[in-house]
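4.2 Preliminary Data

To establish feasibility before requesting continued support, the project team ran the inverse folding procedure on a target of 289 residues. The structure was first converted into the token representation described in Section 3, and no sequence information of any kind was made available to the design step. The complete token record follows.
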């Protein structure tokens, strides 16, 4: 993900927008529609990367090196209908989805996120201790108008613990925020080798999961290109592919029986602007026959 320079040495911004809609499944093919609103105008705000630098000094400074700095770069993904000047816009009653992920390429290798807490108007609305540190919150009971969103990140590096808070404005409104057709579209086609029963994909423990992701070129906006897909099973990285069809092969013999979530993290670009989105597939693993 390209970082765009900012006057502050501690904050750098880039932009992308998360998934918007999931369309129906056809046989073993899932079609996902991802929208980005007013790309060029909103690029600096739709997908925020926070560059955090903290200094920690060991009690034993006999080596003369002094304090050591740790960098943590995190990406904040939302399904807001629009983002402008660190203000998130949602429609009344809409489901709010927010996640925080570490940017491994830009962060210190020692830095690790432990937990992320989310507060709306200083009231805890959710917490996550597993990558991608996502919460979902129903806005049905929230009044229209402006609210304060606080994201509190707990992280550590080589035995040092840190806490970082970031505050945003949330506007719940049916009229404010852009929701027009000045956007671009990316459609993903996901093919799986699972059985499809009762609106759910099903594998057995004695089977190998095969999932491939391709761009629906006929329906996507020209200029959209997928570069890489990373796959996460229940938040744990299980594979990646850098060539179309972007495919994962994964044996399920060590996966517990029950419901699981596969996250497809798609890195792509639109007219040479790097972007990233997450798309989830919920499935069931049954016992081997």
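Position-by-position output of the design step:
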């Amino acid at each position: 993900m390209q970082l765009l320079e900012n006057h502050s040495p501690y904050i750098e911004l880039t932009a992308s927008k998360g998934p918007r809609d999931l369309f129906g499944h056809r046989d073993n093919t899932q079609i996902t529609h991802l929208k980005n609103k007013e790309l060029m105008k909103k690029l600096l705000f739709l997908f925020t990367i926070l560059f955090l630098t903290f200094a920690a000094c060991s009690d034993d400074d006999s080596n003369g090196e002094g304090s050591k700095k740790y960098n943590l770069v995190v990406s904040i993904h939302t399904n807001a209908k629009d983002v402008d000047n660190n203000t998130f816009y949602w429609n009344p009653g809409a489901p709010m989805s927010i996640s925080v992920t570490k940017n491994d390429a830009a962060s210190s290798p020692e830095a690790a996120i432990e937990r992320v807490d989310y507060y709306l108007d200083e009231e805890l609305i959710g917490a996550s201790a597993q990558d991608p540190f996502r919460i979902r919150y129903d806005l049905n009971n929230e009044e229209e108008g402006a609210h304060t969103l606080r994201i509190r990140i707990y992280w550590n590096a080589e035995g040092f613990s840190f806490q970082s808070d970031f505050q945003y404005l949330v506007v719940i409104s049916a009229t404010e925020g852009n929701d027009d057709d000045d956007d671009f579209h990316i459609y993903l086609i996901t093919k799986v080798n699972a059985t499809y029963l009762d609106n759910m994909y099903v594998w057995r423990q004695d089977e190998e999961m095969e999932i491939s992701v391709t761009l629906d070129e006929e329906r996507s906006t020209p200029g959209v290109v997928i570069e890489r897909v990373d796959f996460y099973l229940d938040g744990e990285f299980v594979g990646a592919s850098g060539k179309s069809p972007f495919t994962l092969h994964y044996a399920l013999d060590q996966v517990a029986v029950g419901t699981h979530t596969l996250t497809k993290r798609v890195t792509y670009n639109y007219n040479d602007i790097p972007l990233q989105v997450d798309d989830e597939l919920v499935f069931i693993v049954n016992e081997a026959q």
